[in-house]
């Protein structure tokens, strides 16, 4: 086969065979196909699309370009969740131990921040000693003994995806639904999952800012994952406001510990987390229906079992043994922690959630270059929610900044990004719809 003929075929809008896709992906992985050819094919896919069968074949070829894990030593279902990204989205931190407390195993391979959204691995990097890239042996040991482990993608998992994504990032083909689907699922399926739930964010803080685009990606992921042999559902959730009370790295970890301990649970965050967990339990056969699943999950929280599993996971991956008992001792603290009040009292009408994510990047809580070292302490706590009444007692947020200049800039941003009005707006649902 010739790479240029495969490119020509897709350029002309014709479907590629499994053999052609396998040949091309293998060439990307071993270097026999150069970046210019990869760029050409991804642009042809971007312009002409792929069928479900083609996308499934691309996903499986990328999955099989490296190690594919299996878990014969485990006595329960292997499940995971993936989020398309949002602001304040710390759901993974609670979901993994909650599922483990109900009998599932969660080998969660997560990523760092992308664009304006925060990354799960960046949150865990704020915990001293926590290994986000452990050896495969340690990863398997922690999953088996604890029930869950949240780590980063190793070089041996879906290496073709890394190369293809790097090219897409610089040749304007990131937004292709088929290529997004294959990129997400190649990594997830390489983890050897029985079941997957996709948390697809929609709104002004999400990559999929419209419900139509969200549905398109959800349907693509569900159809391709099921065709590849992994039982998958998608839940479309609202990202028109910060999810939870905190947005940043260390502040989100602190909120996750509060959530698991029962000290405090933001209602919207709890609704989204419980729904995603319940869908996984039902898919995995650990509950017969959603009400039963939610009861089991609530008991796992109320009994302290989920918190105990999170603490054991942190310790097993190198973090402090008493982290959950005294997280404030270990998480980095900003030099300035100060509330910001609205200039005029009123109800929170809306917020530019994407802009809030970008403001965290300005405080060095997110990256502008791939190699940038983050400041894990910066961000926002006590963030207002749509419908809250803000005045001299209830702030817009508590800003965690390192300098007065940084605080002033963050304050200016928030006053511009959060809209206040005299009338209380109608509440909007956290769960938009589901696709199976």
Brief descriptors of the model:
436 residues; alpha/beta; Pyrimidine Nucleoside Phosphorylase, Chain A, domain 2; Aldehyde Oxidoreductase, domain 3; four-stranded mixed β-sheet; globular
Describe the structure.
This protein is of the alpha/beta class. The protein is built from 17 helices and 13 strands. Among the domains are: 79-154 and 190-316, Nucleoside phosphorylase/phosphoribosyltransferase catalytic domain (Pyrimidine Nucleoside Phosphorylase, Chain A, domain 2), CATH 3.40.1030.10; 332-421, Pyrimidine nucleoside phosphorylase-like, C-terminal domain (Aldehyde Oxidoreductase, domain 3). Strand 4, helix 10 and strand 5 (231-238) form a beta-alpha-beta unit. The radius of gyration is 22 Å and the shape is globular. The mean pLDDT is 93.
Rounded radius of gyration (Å) = 22 Å
Q: What would CATH call the class of the domain at 79-154 and 190-316?
A: Alpha Beta
State the order of secondary-structure elements, H for helix, E for strand: HHHHEHEHHEHHEHEEHHHHHEEHEEEHEE
Q: Can you count the beta strands?
A: 13
N- to C-terminal distance: 37 Å
What is the fourth-level CATH superfamily of the domain at 79-154 and 190-316?
Nucleoside phosphorylase/phosphoribosyltransferase catalytic domain
Low-confidence stretches: none
Shape: globular
Structural class: alpha/beta
Summed up:
By secondary structure, the chain is α/β, with parallel strands linked by helices. It has helices at 3-11, 18-30, 35-48, 52-63, 91-101, 120-124, 136-146, 159-170, 177-190, 211-227, 250-261, 267-283, 290-302, 305-316, 327-330, 353-362, 404-417; strands at 79-83, 106-110, 148-152, 195-202, 231-238, 247-248, 336-340, 346-351, 379-381, 389-390, 397-401, 418-421, 431-435.
């Amino acid at each position: 086969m010739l790479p240029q003929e495969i490119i020509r075929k897709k350029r002309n809008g014709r479907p590629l065979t499994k053999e052609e896709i396998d040949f091309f992906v293998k060439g990307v992985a071993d270097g026999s196909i150069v970046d210019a050819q990869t760029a050409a094919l991804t642009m042809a896919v971007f312009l002409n699309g792929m069928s479900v069968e083609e996308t499934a074949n691309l996903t499986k070829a990328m999955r099989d370009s490296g190690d594919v894990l299996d878990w014969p030593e485990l006595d329960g279902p292997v499940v995971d969740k993936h989020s398309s990204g949002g602001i304040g989205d710390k759901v993974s931190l609670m979901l993994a131990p909650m599922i483990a407390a109900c009998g599932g195993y969660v080998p969660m391979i997560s990523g760092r921040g992308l664009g304006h959204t925060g990354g799960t691995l960046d949150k865990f990097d704020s915990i001293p000693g926590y290994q986000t890239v452990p050896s495969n042996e340690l990863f398997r040991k922690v999953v088996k003994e604890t029930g869950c482990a949240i780590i980063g993608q190793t070089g041996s998992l879906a290496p073709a995806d890394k190369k293809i994504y790097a090219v897409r990032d610089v040749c304007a083909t990131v937004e292709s639904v088929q290529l997004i689907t294959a990129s997400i699922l190649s990594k997830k399926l390489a983890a050897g999952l029985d079941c997957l739930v996709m948390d697809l964010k929609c709104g002004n803080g999400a990559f999929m800012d419209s419900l139509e685009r969200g549905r398109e990606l959800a349907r693509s992921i569900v159809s391709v994952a099921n065709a590849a042999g992994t039982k998958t559902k998608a839940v479309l959730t609202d990202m028109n406001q910060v999810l939870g009370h905190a947005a940043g790295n260390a502040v989100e970890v602190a909120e996750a510990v509060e959530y698991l301990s029962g000290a405090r649970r933001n209602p919207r965050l709890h609704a989204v987390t419980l729904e995603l967990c319940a869908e996984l339990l039902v898919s995995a056969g650990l509950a017969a229906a959603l009400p039963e699943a939610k009861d089991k999950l609530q008991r796992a929280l109320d009994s302290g079992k989920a918190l105990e599993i999170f603490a054991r996971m942190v310790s097993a991956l190198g973090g402090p043994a008493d982290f959950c008992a005294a997280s404030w001792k270990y998480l980095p603290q900003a030099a300035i922690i100060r509330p910001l009040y609205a200039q005029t009292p009123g109800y929170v009408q809306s917020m530019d959630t994407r802009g809030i994510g970008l403001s965290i990047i300005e405080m060095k809580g997110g990256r502008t270059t791939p190699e940038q070292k983050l400041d894990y302490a910066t961000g926002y706590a006590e963030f207002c929610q749509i419908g809250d009444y803000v005045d001299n007692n209830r702030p817009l947020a508590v800003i965690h900044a390192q300098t007065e200049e940084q605080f002033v800039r963050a304050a200016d941003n928030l006053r511009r990004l959060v809209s206040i009005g005299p009338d209380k707006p109608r509440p909007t649902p956290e769960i938009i719809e589901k696709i199976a």
